[in-house]
Design a protein that fits this description.
It is a single chain. With about 375 residues, this protein is an alpha+beta fold. It has 3 domains: about 5-170, Glycosidases (TIM Barrel); about 170-230, no CATH class; about 245-360, Trefoil (Acidic Fibroblast Growth Factor, subunit A), CATH 2.80.10.50. Helix content is about 15%, strand content about 25%. The chain has 7 helices and 22 strands. The chain has helices at about 5-15, 30-40, 40-45, 65-70, 90-105, 150-160, 195, and strands at about 20-25, 50-55, 75-80, 85, 115, 130, 135, 145-150, 170-175, 200-205, 210-215, 225-230, 250, 265, 275-280, 285, 290-295, 305, 320, 325, 330-335, 345-350. The strands form 7 sheets. Strands 9-12-11-10 form a 4-stranded mixed beta sheet. A 4-stranded antiparallel beta sheet has the order 15-16-17-18, with no helix packed on it. Helix 5 (about 90-105) runs parallel beside helix 6. The longest helix has 14 residues, at about 90-105. The termini are far apart.
Length: about 375
């Protein structure tokens, strides 16, 4: 179908409908060849059933949204599809960049394609077999029916931190603004400064610090953004013991931060080698390094160790409602070898059995 024929079909579709229609509904990178001709038609833009333009985020630059806004400032824009998947090296970074870039370029929404899939990224009928969801519902085996929350569940939750201005999307800007210097530091808010204090919005945290989003008015439909780092205070998800079988603590052997140091269980002492942070990127961190499946292995019995954080799948851990700590790449559980609670017993990954040696209590 030629572009002209396709545009004519879209025009004729308007007449029998009673609901609004979004045009394009495809990638930013395809706008010049697919969506631009239809949007250029004033009869389409002024039709009472015209709802705006929709974007997919699989390829192309979201800055196209700003170009469209420059030409047609009254046209609403929506991001209607983007999926996580195995082709994305760092899903956390990808999602947070998308949320900011879509909003910065006039999109009023961010929509994930897959809400829930099983551990095989299905079922599907000829569709994407490598797309991930916000939750993973285990199918078959000892964990059948259990739900794991992926990193996308949490990154999508961050979208609620942005509150759109009435009638337009919030735009997020990099440039500094003089008002930033007037934002008081936490704990030093007095009198009229409370109004500015309420503009602070936390957008996430990791084992090294907390990212805080400063929103400042800059016109009726804009916000200026300033991202700063603040030390993580002892509290939610930070610097707490992880306890397992027999009430013993997950422990870094000999209090050593050397790469390859085994993770074991030991009577809880309160030492730094028993303090763990659940980072926003899906890692578990102690002594400045990550809990790691040795060599990225997936076989039963592969040892679990401490290793320099590198963003690999070997360092991803999901805590389930059943209190299992699962490495999604291997789809196996953090396991205390030999089902014993003796001090010094090393850990490994093993097929999830539901046994007491695979149950863990994490910082809440």
């Amino acid at each position: 179908m030629s572009a002209a024929t396709r545009d004519e079909v879209m025009r004729r579709l308007f007449s029998p409908l009673t609901t609004k229609v979004l045009v394009h509904d495809w990638n930013y990178g395809d706008y010049s060849t697919i969506g631009s001709g239809l949007l250029a038609d004033s009869a389409v833009r002024t039709d009472p059933l015209f709802g705006g333009i929709a974007w997919h985020g699989y390829w192309g630059d979201p800055a196209v949204g700003s170009q469209v806004h420059g030409q047609y400032p009254a046209v609403p824009q929506f991001s209607t599809e983007h999926s996580g998947g195995t082709w994305i090296a760092n899903q956390h970074n990808e999602d947070m960049a998308d949320i900011v870039n879509y909003a910065r370029n006039w999109s009023r929404s961010v929509v994930k394609w897959s809400l829930a899939v099983n551990q095989y990224m299905g079922p599907h009928n000829g569709g994407c077999g490598t797309c991930t969801g916000l939750i993973t519902v285990q199918e078959g085996g000892a964990r059948a029916g259990q739900v794991d929350y992926t990193i996308e569940y949490y990154t999508t939750g961050h979208l609620t931190k942005f509150r759109p201005a009435r009638g337009a999307a919030d735009r997020l800007h990099r440039q500094r603004h003089r008002a930033e210097r007037r934002v008081p530091q936490p704990g030093r808010v007095q009198g009229a400064a409370r109004a500015q204090r309420r503009q602070l919005r936390p957008v996430g945290e990791d084992g090294l610090g907390r990212a805080v989003l400063h929103l400042h008015p800059a016109g009726p439909h804009h916000r200026h953004v300033h991202l700063v780092r603040q030390p993580v205070r002892r509290g939610r998800h930070a610097d707490r013991p992880i306890t397992g079988i027999g009430g013993k603590c997950l422990d870094v052997t000999d209090n050593s931060s050397a790469d390859g140091t085994p993770a074991q269980i030991w009577s809880c002492t309160g030492g730094a080698n028993q303090q763990w942070t659940r980072a926003a990127d899906g890692t578990l961190r102690s002594l400045g390094k990550c809990l790691d499946v040795a060599g990225g292995g997936t076989a039963d019995g592969t040892r679990v160790q401490l290793w320099t954080c590198n963003g690999s799948a070997a360092q991803q851990w999901t805590w389930t409602a059943g209190r299992d700590l699962v490495n999604p790449q291997a789809n196996k559980c953090l396991d205390v070898t030999g089902n014993t609670s003796a001090d010094g017993t090393k850990t490994q990954i093993w097929s999830c059995t539901g046994g007491a040696n695979q149950k863990w209590t994490l910082p809440s």
